[in-house]
Amino acid sequence: MAHPSAYQVIFTFGKHKGSSLGYIADTNSNYLRWLKGSELPELWRIAADRTLEGETVEDLNLPRTRMKRGNGGQSGSQAAGLVIKDKKTAAVRFPYDEEILNRIKVEIDGRQWNDEAKCWEFPIVHLPKVVNIFGGIDKLKVTETVKKAYRKELKRRSDLDEIRVRLESDLEIATQIPLYPFQRVGVEFVERAGGRAMVADAMGLGKTAQAIGFALKTQSKTLIVCPKSVTLQWAEEIKKFTGKNSTIWTTQKVEGHGNNQFHIINYDAVRKQLKKLLEVNWDLLVCDEATNLKNRRTLRAKSVLGSWKERRKFPGIKTKYVLFLTGTPILNRPIEAYYLLSFLDPQRFNSFYHFVGRYGGWKFEEPKNLEELHDRTKDVVIRRLKKQVLPELPDKQRNDLYIQLDTDERKEYDEILEELFRTWHFNGKATVSTMPKIQGFLSGKKIERAKEIVDEFLGADRAILIFSVYIKPLKELKAHYGDQAELLYGDTTAKERRAIVQRLVDGKSKVGLIGLHAGGMGLDGLQHVIDTVLFLNMDWVPGIHEQAEDRTHRIGQKEKVQIFYLICNDTIDEDMRALLDEKQKVIDTVADGKLVSSVRSRSTFKEFVQRLSAKHGDLFGA
Q1: Which residues have C-beta within 8 Å of that of residue 16, sequence separation ≥ 6?
Q2: Nearest-CA neighbor of 244 among 230, 256, 228, 227?
Q3: Sign, Cα dihedral of 575, 580, 585, 587
């Protein structure tokens, strides 16, 4: 995105004569790339280079914008005029200027032409952006009311920017257990953002506590929508921080008093209980793991967020305050962010077609203008990483442990691999559904090594978590270790989950055998007693592994967390591990507070197949 000063420098020659450098960068950046390497005056070449890099051109003394000054609302027939129409709407009238007209249409979400008044109306939250398009408040005819509204909006954004990077807050929140300083900062940010925000802190930083803190601060009747596996954990956290009981809604009944401040329901139960939920006057809606709602076409998203096309059936849950919580907010397409953002702030994000036209990501279009999108989302999103707010939190270290197949095992593996290739060739394509046999075979060859590791830990009276995509090896380990081990997977009820976690926390059991997809969340407390995680096998999504790792790498951990991946040497394990490691490094790079990744997301499985093709020849040609 071009620096604001680039929009004030007017090009004085060629086909873009009369346009600003910023506008050329938006509409024909290739021309600036050509200009940078041309033989035109050096000053313009420097300006082109800086504009492409998003740097200022203020100091180059190039020709400036032709907009006349407004003299603070005094005379000047050619000056643009800006007025406040009501609490939510402003309007601007200006002499015809093609570039400014196009920028208003492209950059200002929710703008609308008022043919009767001959002016452009727009949400007042865009006041600073509109003023910037015209080169500053001094270039506009304005009243003191406009100046006051402009300064107020600038201060609001400045306050949010200042709060976002703080590590301490003086905000008083009456929780029974004091919040960490950075958690109070999170509550203050949400409060300053008007109570509608996304808390996207890294996993393990206590987003639940921040949501409870905000609910107490505002004395809000609160509906918490969360995955089914963590409903009881939410109830326990609320009891711990507030001393209050919660009401839990299931698909068939409501357990608890209707007058309770906190009500908890899982995503899939919302649709079943929607009619009753809509009868309650909620103040605050909290959506845990909010990326469950990124696809608004799903029934769960329609039930919570509403649907414009089916608004009678799905009006959405209306509340004054909204909190979206997610530890993995890095989305692959801007369209995924739009549905969440428009629900949080319908003034700032109120046009789907404008949004996807400006930022791409729809119908396979590449994302674009992401720096600008990041700037826009700063008003409603706060994201902190562990290294920023908990420098004392011990590091975690990933280690690969290799297992050598013997001659007979290698022969059997090769036969299964050849069978896999033949299946792909017969089907004409490779699919994830064909992978369990070979992955299950390799998982079985890791059991004995896993037992050796567990025995070492038990001998030292230490605990360990073991994750697996497949349940069979976990059941085998459970049968071997009996009461020393706890098994948790998809069929485990929420009540059993909490009992299992408690036995591990109390030290009654030392081995946690966890299904990877079932145990990636909702296991808080283990960090106090466990600092080692072992993976028997791997999923195709690196974020799932990170969630599992962070069951131990979170607030309360005092030791360095050790992560071990069991890898069968010279097998597909090595290819999967290498790919996951590469993608994790990309995630670590882009997860710097931005909502949408600039890195094009590719299927891990497709890349895996490409690697196998390169290693074994054309898999489909055999």
Answers
A1: 24, 28, 31
A2: 256
A3: positive
* Other CB atoms within 10 Å distance of the CB of residue 194: 15
Collapsing DSSP to helix, strand or coil, 588 comes out as helix
Written as one string, the DSSP assignment of 406-474 is -HHHHHHHHHHHHHHHHHHHHHTS--GGG-HHHHHHHHHTTHHHHHHHHHHHHHTT--EEEEESSSHHH
Widest distance between CA atoms in the chain: 92
Q: 165-389 has which CATH code?
A: 3.40.50.10810
Answer for the pair 301, 293: CB distance below 8 angstroms, yes or no: yes
Q: Is the dihedral of CA 401, 407, 412, 413 positive or negative?
A: positive
Question: Cα(145)–Cα(79) distance, rounded to whole angstroms?
Answer: 18
Selection from 67, 83, 70 nearest residue 121 by Cα: 83
Which 3 state secondary structure label does DSSP give 160? helix
Task: Tell me the CATH number of domain 396-591, given options 1.10.10.10, 1.20.1330.10, 3.40.50.300, 2.40.50.140.
Answer: 3.40.50.300
Structure tokens at 423: 């299946």
Rounded to whole angstroms, the Cα distance separating 125 from 154 reads 10
- C-alpha dihedral (192, 193, 199, 202), degrees to nearest 10: -70
Residues sharing a CB contact under 8 Å with residue 420, sequence separation 6 or more, in sequence order: 434, 435, 437, 438
Annotate 546-558 with DSSP letters as a single string: HHHHTTTSSTT--
State the pTM of this model: 0.76
Location of structure tokens 């270290």: 397
At a CB cut-off of 8 Å and minimum separation 6, what does 403 contact? 445, 446, 449, 566, 567, 568, 569
CB contact burial 303-336 (16+ within 10 A = b; e otherwise): bbbbbeeeeeebebbebebbbbbbbbbbbbbbbb
DSSP H stretches of helix in 538-603: 542-549, 572-590
What pLDDT band is residue 76 in, cutting at 50, 70 and 90? very low
Distance CA 386, CA 524 (A): 16
Rounded CA-CA distance 71/570 in Å is 75
For residue 476, report the phi and psi dihedrals to the nearest 5 degrees. -65, -40
Helices (H), 290-369: 299-305, 334-344, 352-359
Q: Residue 559: is it exposed, middle or buried by C-beta count within 10 angstroms (0-12/13-18/19+)?
A: exposed
403, 569 contact by CB (below 8 A)? yes
pLDDT tens track for 433-449: 999 999 999 999 999 99
- For residue 445, the one-letter residue type is K
List pLDDT tens digits, range 218-233: 999 999 999 887 888 8
pLDDT cut 70: percent of the chain above it: 92
Tokens of 126: 């865009």
